[in-house]
Every structure is written in C-alpha cells, then in structure tokens.
Amino acid sequence: ATLANEVTVNKDWWWLVQLGKCQHRLDMLRDSEKHYLLSLEIQPMVDTYLYLAKIYLRLDQPLLSISKLQEGLEKFPYEPFLLQAIARIYEGLNDMTQSADNYRQVLKLNNINIEAIACIAANHFYNDQPEISLNFYRRLLQMGVTTA
Question: Name one GO biological process term (predicted).
C-alpha cells in the first residue's frame, strides 16, 4: 500500500484509506488519522468517516468522533450508518436521550434496522414504559429476529 501510494503521489483516496487501515491495525493511530483526513480531502466517503470516528474513539475523544460523523452527515445527509455510529457513541457516553433520538432518525431512513429497534425498545423498557417497548419487541419478532 505504501508503494502504491508513492506511485500515485498521495492523490488516490483509496490507497490513503488502505494505508490508514494498515496503520490502524498496527496502533499507529495518529498516522492513520492523517491518512484518513487526506483521503477525505480528495474524496469524501462514508466508510472513511466511520474509520476516522473509530480512530478518535480509540484516542478517547468521543466528542471529536461525533463532530466528524456529523461533518459526514452534512455531506451524506441520508446515511443511516453515520447516524447509527453517532447513536452508539452517545449510548457509550450514557446519554440515552440523544442515543434514542439518533436511533429514531435511523428508523426514519431504514425502518427495519434491528439494532435501532432493539435499542429504542430497551430505552422504553428502562424508562418504565413496558407497553411501548413491547410493541417494538413484537415488531422484532414479526421480522423473524429471535435473539434481540
């Protein structure tokens, strides 16, 4: 990947992402971040925003991760994977209202997203609204999910 990137003189976004992936696996997080940012300058892609968010989470910077994902949402406004990643981060930060709001937005874009339905159902259950959560769990069972 390094040789291919040298041949293209840092102009091919795909090779920059591949270099970032390699460095991510080697725990060279700052170098990986640099390659992902260069790739985004050349060609914004949803996957690159998700990889960059993972880097910032590994660096224990969840708010920066959220801001990069929201930057990706500005370029790709109807992308459920970006919204789902933001919801997961808020869930990790124990901000369940923001998490549930983002999962609801995911359901508006993709109404059969199992993770979003299950998380909203669990949120209603733990907020003492078992009747509402039962509707969501019933929906999962109707979809054929047996392990939610």
Answer: non-motile cilium assembly
